[in-house]
Design brief:
heterodimer, A: 274 residues, mainly alpha, MetI-like fold, 2 domains, 0% strand, globular, B: mainly alpha, 13 helices, 72% helix, MetI-like_sf (chain A), transmembrane (chain A), cell inner membrane (chain A), MetI-like (chain A), cell membrane (chain A)
Chain lengths: 274, 301
């Protein structure tokens, strides 16, 4: 029995240590986001005894974070809405219709899921320049829709294909047309899968850095990850302010997690379990 | 035209209407760019739009005369073979701990999973601070336990920069593997784990002889997924070291990006050729790995 207690204690100790390792850096940054840089430089690990909440206001008003946040929200929301709708339509067609070329279309789209981003990114840059989409939010949004589209169609198609045929038979008898079937059966019944892809796409795009750094250059069009990275480059010394900016990027995701934790975990792991 | 024909035609129009938006986007922003990159790789492309056909010269130079590329490939391969084992191994152990119902499992799971959700840019900045020479947590801890000799600027030292980045990246990704392993464990029939319990074998034996074989398919999938993702690693390197010091952390992605947009070499053809080579390497790796491990390991229970 004593050995058992000992091993449980050891296990607990190891888990606690690992928790400090994963959560510690995060708590540290949250703490720094409420302290000024001189305070941090004097004692990097002291708690924020007097939290400077005004730093968030200042980040907003003087450091352009408000603009970055707005850009991130606008571009991500628009891309996710479009990719969900377009992806669901395509998935519906692939799952519920039998037509020639169906397998080829599916295979062509799905195979690009594993492509490394370099294979498109240089040409995307050229295309954006040629069509005056370079350094525009519209251009970045179109690219975001395109990069998330294959995985979205893939996940939705798998789910839509498992919706019982009986539902569709009943709809046919009720005289539903093709669009009504999509709108009134596939979308509502497929909602769990749609919610999963919405979350997955949102997190991916919210955190994207590579495509944004290639397509956006104007400071007023930067998304949060770009803004933070640029701030890091410009104000190497202003650690306190960088930490505040990092928290602005992290808080929405953590809130998202707090409200939708199960679904979010499902979304993040959807591609992997298959 | 009889009724059936009309219905078939209606269905064809419906299919086309449902597929068209996706196909247009796919063609314009995925298929066309891929083809254009292949095409570009045969040219030297100047910013004024001048394209000079050079055939396979770019490829020849990359494969025979570009030490930085060789270094980038080596770094990326090291990264993508080492990290998956850390991520999946640690993820599995943590999942097992949660599976055996330790107290506060829910809190642990949240604390361990959160890094997965954080933007890599943020992760990169956090870790570049942790590795800071003067006030980074790592050096402070080493000094606290009297190992002053080991302190260094972890990302500034060519010997430690790559391992340091691999550690930072695994900090982000272990939680993901933990969650997938946990889901897989819960989907196992509970009798199996109970039987192992009854046999009273040690936890290490249980891990090797029961858990790992049972989860083989999931674990392999996770390893392959991690391997492929690491082949594309970019953000973390770009924000912390930009491939330095002395190319110690250069990866295939950062080198492509550098040659295309940073070096002011004013040639998009050469980086396109790098992209094509790396694309073929990734695809080959995926094909080989799936052929090697496909279904052969399906376990019946």
């Amino acid at each position: 029995m004593r050995r058992d207690w000992l091993s449980r204690g050891l296990l607990w100790g190891a888990l606690a240590l690992y928790t400090v390792y994963t959560a510690g850096p995060f708590v540290w940054v949250a703490n720094m986001s409420l302290r000024t840089t001189p305070e941090i430089m004097a004692a990097p690990y002291a708690p924020a005894w007097t939290p400077h909440w005004w730093k968030f206001v200042e980040a907003w008003t003087t450091s352009n974070y408000g603009t970055y946040l707005w850009n991130s929200v606008a571009i991500c929301v628009a891309s996710v809405v479009i990719v969900t709708l377009v992806g669901a339509m395509a998935a519906h067609a692939l799952a519920r219709y039998r037509f020639r070329g169906r397998r080829i279309v599916g295979a062509a789209i799905f195979s690009t899921i594993i492509f490394p981003p370099q294979i498109t990114i240089i040409a995307l840059f050229q295309i954006m320049v040629e069509y005056d989409l370079y350094d525009t939010r519209l251009g970045l949004m179109l690219v975001y829709v395109a990069i998330q589209l294959p995985l979205t169609v893939y996940l939705l198609e798998a789910f839509f294909a498992r919706i019982p045929e009986a539902l569709y038979e009943a709809a046919k008898i009720d005289g539903y047309g093709g669009i009504e079937v999509f709108w009134k059966i596939t979308l509502p019944v497929g909602f769990p899968a749609i919610a999963t892809t919405i979350i997955l796409n949102f997190i991916h795009l919210w955190n994207d850095f590579l495509y944004a750094v290639v397509i956006i250059s104007d400071d007023n069009k930067r998304t949060l990850p770009l803004g933070i990275q640029k701030f890091m480059g410009d104000q190497m010394e202003d650690i306190g302010m960088i930490a505040t900016g990092m928290m602005i990027a992290v808080i929405p995701v953590v809130l998202f997690y707090a409200f939708f934790s199960e679904r979010l975990i499902q979304g993040m792991t959807a591609g992997a379990v298959k | 035209m009889d009724h059936r024909d009309e219905e078939a035609r209606g269905r064809r129009i419906e299919v086309a209407a449902f597929l068209l938006p996706a196909l247009l986007l796919f063609a314009a922003f995925t298929a066309y760019p891929v083809l254009r990159t292949f095409w570009n790789s045969l040219f030297e492309i100047r910013p004024n739009g001048n394209e000079i056909f050079v055939g396979f010269d770019n490829f020849r130079e990359i494969l025979t005369g570009d030490p930085v590329f060789r270094r980038a490939v080596l770094n990326t391969l090291v990264w993508s073979t080492v990290e998956p084992f850390i991520d999946v191994g640690l993820g599995l152990l943590l999942a097992l701990a949660l599976y055996t119902k330790v107290p506060f499992a829910r809190f642990f799971r949240i604390a361990w999973f959160t890094p997965v959700l954080i933007s890599t840019v943020v992760v990169a900045i956090i870790w570049s601070w942790i590795y800071n020479y003067d006030w980074g947590a790592l050096n402070l801890m080493l000094r606290a336990i009297g190992l002053d000799g080991m302190t260094r600027a972890w990302l500034g030292d060519p010997a430690t920069a790559l391992p340091a980045l691999i550690l930072a990246d695994s900090w982000k990704w272990v939680g993901f593997n933990m969650v997938v392993c946990l889901a897989a464990l819960h989907s196992l029939p509970s009798e199996v784990m109970e039987a192992a319990e009854l046999d009273n074998c040690g936890w290490w034996a249980k891990l090797c002889h029961v858990v790992v074989p049972m989860l083989r398919a999931t674990l392999l999938n996770l390893l392959i997924l991690a391997f492929i993702s690491r082949m594309k690693v970019f953000d973390l390197v770009w924000v912390t070291t930009r491939g330095g010091p002395l190319w110690a952390t250069e990866t295939a992605s950062t080198y492509t990006f550098k040659r295309a947009f940073e070096w002011r070499s004013f040639d998009l053809g050469y980086p396109s050729a790098i992209a094509v080579i790396w694309f073929l390497v990734v695809i080959a790796a995926v094909v080989v790995l799936t052929l090697l491990f496909r279904q052969r390991d399906r376990l019946e229970f």
